[in-house]
Amino acid sequence: MLKEKAREKARQLVSEMTVEEKISQLLYEAPAIERLGIHAYNWWNEACHGVARAGVATVFPQSIGMAASFDPALVRQVADAISTEGRAKYNRSVAFGDRDIFKGLTYWAPNINIFRDPRWGRGQETCGEDPFLTSLIGAAFIEGLQGDGAYYKATACAKHFAGHSGPERLRHGFNAKISKKDLYETYLPAFYHAVKAGVAGVMGAYNRTNGEPCCASPVLMEILRKNWGFDGYFVSDCGAIRDISEGHHVAEDLAHAAALALNAGCELNCGDAYQSLIEAYESDLVTEEAITDAAVRLFTIRALLGEFEETRPYADIPYAAVSCKEHKALNLRAAEETLVLLENKNGFLPLDPAAPRRIAVVGPNAMSVTALEGNYNGHADEYVNVADGFRRVFPQAEITVADGSPIYQDERRRWDGFTNLESEGAAAAADADLTVLVLGLDRTVEGEDLGYENDFTDYGDRKTMRLPLCQQKLAEAICDVCENVIVVALCGSCVDLGARVRSHAKAVIHAWYPGAMGGLAVARLVAGRFSPSGRLPITFYHDGTALPDMASYEMTGRTYRFDETLPLYPFGFGLGFTSFRYGVPTLTEADAEKVCLSVDVSNVGGMDGREVVQCYASFTDSRTSTPRLQLCAVESIFLEKGASKTVALTVDRFWLKAVLADGSRVDPDGGIRLFVGGAQPTDLKQGFVLE
């Protein structure tokens, strides 16, 4: 068995090292040990939506957008393309002796934290607010990235374990207080399913969870290693072990912090804290056996990547695979599947691309590359922004482009300009038959620990569901001068455009951070080259909704599963250009492990299209607290107009359990109803009663 062979190779290599050499291999910048023929290896690499920070690569839609596809097969294909490009880059880097950061094969993705609060800046990196969808998309990404060969094509790393989802400002010393019920019902399932999918790595979070630093938590490690059987490697988030002493003040110094983490089961340190393991070893805080076990686990991963083979696996992948035409085509398809059509009044879309018209493309993201990329990104060798997308798809149109406003700043009389641009946008829109208003955010105001605060962002976390004031003013000015307005929002979370803009806009498209081909995908949607099929992986809230304190991890009042208020747009929502009719679901099989249903779906509209078939469970008359609804099965199908298909849905009983106060999953003490359709059910008294 290859895994045992890899472990034996790892044991043999480590057995020949001194204690100091073993410790050196527990840092992400592992140095070469020339006398043993071991090359330097840098473990840190990123690839949540394409090979990141290593030059040119295909920049796929940001993770939240990929989740909006509700299509695990697509995500698996995208992840496979990412690891192909990663291997191509690795092969050439090694050939040229380049073993620097972001050149290895150990990718620290996917981020499968639950996007429990729409204000969280890093939510764009996640798969949304639902544990089932996050588990489904996360597992597909892991399987696609790691491949199905004897050796890993690359390795995935599920992060951040556990309970990390803001606030960004406080993360280096924050204690996430989570009940066992919420932990097992919401925060842990995606990690459990990542382990079941064979993920090679797990990254610990910065914060404490219930008083224990996540990178040194005996409770979390017992769940991961003992209860779930995880046998991969555990890595700290970058600087998180230093936080144990300097942020959480749980350890008296760095040596004690490093010892706590290693003894708990954290093999790899992203940062420099494990340099202090030498002091910890000399002070008898850690044993050589613990150091050896950690090194063996890490070298097992390197062996499973084929590093020590005479002929490396996947060595035949050429550099030409990077940003190849096949990957660009896949990228465009992925971008198209991620777009969510939120409004289409009186069937305003699609528009005839051959008709002559004057189109103004206005807004801070009209020509933005940054908004296509999201964060944790590579650089594409070709970008199609929204303005250029309309130039390509609407060749008969007279296209005018204007910034209209910056992303955030709205200062008058600035000597360096590019702030007060509202009149420019209004001028372009006033002369147009149609204005495409391209608004939104980018990683400069929404993201990871940005390090500053203003009236819109708090270290990357948002303070409001509205857009920055300068964009809101622009949008209202455009609505005053142009009758036909299409709003396109590029951002990583929900946006409330305000009643004035929502009521005026003929259509609203939420595009997330759609990747290098995102602008072309948006223009193709408007032209009706495909029927939009993206669905919201998060709830869209009205601005001013009384959201719970972001520092509270209690799930009451959060997400579609526990919030009883009427949202702006619900989780799972999205419009298309065609219509689908559902038959009555039929139970085909039921046992202790699964429930199988079938349902007939027909495309009764005037256009071919993809449909996201969703199955939700509700729990009736249960004395145990349960979610209001729980997504439990998804199938993505494509039907030509007039065609029908019988769709099979398999519901894992895992998602039909009630979670008790102690975290255990049990059969609910009430009834279960299953609902099948293209969106959340609106009447919970209907549905298929599961006996």
What does this protein look like?
The strands form 8 sheets. A 6-stranded mixed sheet has the order 9-16-15-12-10-11, with helices on both faces. Strands 17, 18, 19 and 22 form a 4-stranded antiparallel sheet that branches. Strands 21-20-25-26 form a 4-stranded antiparallel sheet, with no helix packed on it. The protein is an alpha/beta fold. Among the domains are: 331-562, Glycoside hydrolase family 3 C-terminal domain (Rossmann fold), CATH 3.40.50; 580-690, Immunoglobulin-like (Sandwich). The model has no long low-confidence stretch (mean pLDDT 96). The longest helix has 24 residues, at 72-95.
Q: Residue ranges: pLDDT <50 for 5 or more in a row?
A: none
The average pLDDT value, as a whole number, equals: 96
CATH top level class name of one domain: Alpha Beta
State which percent range the strand residues make up: 15-25%
Q: How does the major sheet shape up?
A: 6 strands, mixed
Q: How helix-rich are the residues, as a percent range?
A: 25-40%
Question: Count of DSSP E strands?
Answer: 26
Shape: globular
Quaternary structure: single chain
Radius of gyration: 25 Å
* N-end to C-end Cα span: 44 Å
CATH H-level homologous superfamily name of one domain? Glycoside hydrolase family 3 C-terminal domain
**CATH level-3 fold name of one domain:** Rossmann fold
Q: Which strand order spans the largest sheet, edge to edge or round the barrel?
A: 9-16-15-12-10-11
Structural class: alpha/beta
Secondary-structure arrangement, i.e. CATH architecture of one domain: 3-Layer(aba) Sandwich
- Structure annotation, total helices: 20
